[in-house]
Specification:
By secondary structure, this protein is α+β, with helices and mostly antiparallel strands. The chain contains 3 helices and 7 strands; from the N terminus they run ααββαβββββ.
Length: about 210
C-alpha cells in the first residue's frame, strides 16, 4: 500500500520537462495576450484619429467650408428720379440755317416713403465735348469741355412731397448752330440731361439721361 501511494504521488509530480512545457505555454499565452492588447490599442488609436479627422473634414472627407457672412443689403432710398421724353429724337434740318430742334418731356419724382421734404430740384442740359487728341497735353480744358445750355429750377423753396409719382414738365429749343452728336477717333460730342434733387437733412439724388 505505501508503494502504491508513493507511486501515485510520483505519477502526479511534474517532471522538469512538464515544467518547461508549462513555462513555454504560459510564455506563449502571455505573448498572445500582449499581442492582442497591442492590436486592440492600435485599433482604438486608429478609431480615435479617424473620428478626429472626420470632425475636421466632415463626413464627405473634404474640409468643411467656413460660413460666409450674410450679404449686405443697400438701404432703400426715400425717392428716385426718372425722365420720360415726349418728343422724338432731335434733328437739325437746314444745315447752318436750321432753326433748331425742340424737345420736351417730364422729370418724374417717385417717392417711396410716406413723405419726403426736398430743398431743391434742378436739371441742366449739357453739351460735352471730349477731344481724344488735344493740341496740348498739359491743357485739361482742351480735353473736356462742358457747356450748360439750359437749366431748370423746379422748386424755389423747400417742399414736402407725399408717397407716389410727381411729374415736372420741361421743354427746350436747341439752337440750330450746335454741332450734331458725334463719335469719332478724334473727338466725341454728346448732349445730356443732368437732374439733381436734394432731400432735407439727407442724401442727394442724381440722374444722368443721354439726349438723343
Amino acid at each position: 500500500m505505501p508503494s502504491r501511494i508513493l507511486s501515485f504521488r510520483r505519477s502526479h509530480l511534474p517532471s522538469p520537462r512538464d515544467h518547461k512545457s508549462q513555462t513555454d505555454h504560459t510564455g506563449n499565452l502571455a505573448d498572445i495576450i500582449d499581442t492582442g492588447d497591442q492590436r486592440r490599442h492600435t485599433a482604438a488609436m486608429d478609431i480615435f484619429h479617424f473620428g478626429s479627422k472626420d470632425k475636421r473634414q466632415g463626413t464627405s472627407g473634404h474640409s468643411t467650408p467656413k460660413a460666409k457672412g450674410s450679404p449686405r443689403i443697400a438701404p432703400a432710398k426715400a425717392a428716385r428720379l426718372e425722365i420720360e421724353m415726349e418728343s422724338p429724337p432731335c434733328v437739325f434740318y437746314g444745315g447752318s440755317n436750321s432753326s433748331g430742334a425742340l424737345f420736351s418731356g417730364q422729370l418724374r419724382l417717385i417717392v417711396t416713403e410716406p413723405e419726403v421734404r426736398l430743398t431743391s430740384i434742378n436739371m441742366e442740359c449739357k453739351g460735352i465735348t471730349v477731344t481724344k487728341k488735344p493740341v496740348s497735353k498739359d491743357c485739361p480744358d482742351c480735353i473736356n469741355r462742358i457747356s450748360v445750355l439750359k437749366s431748370w429750377n423746379f422748386i424755389t423753396e423747400p417742399t414736402t412731397y407725399s408717397r407716389g409719382t410727381h411729374h415736372l414738365p420741361f421743354s427746350y429749343l436747341l439752337p440750330g448752330h450746335l454741332p450734331a452728336t458725334t463719335h469719332s477717333p478724334l473727338a466725341n460730342i454728346d448732349y445730356s440731361l443732368e437732374a439733381k434733387a436734394v432731400i432735407a437733412f439727407a442724401e442727394t439724388i442724381t440722374l444722368h439721361h443721354p439726349l438723343r
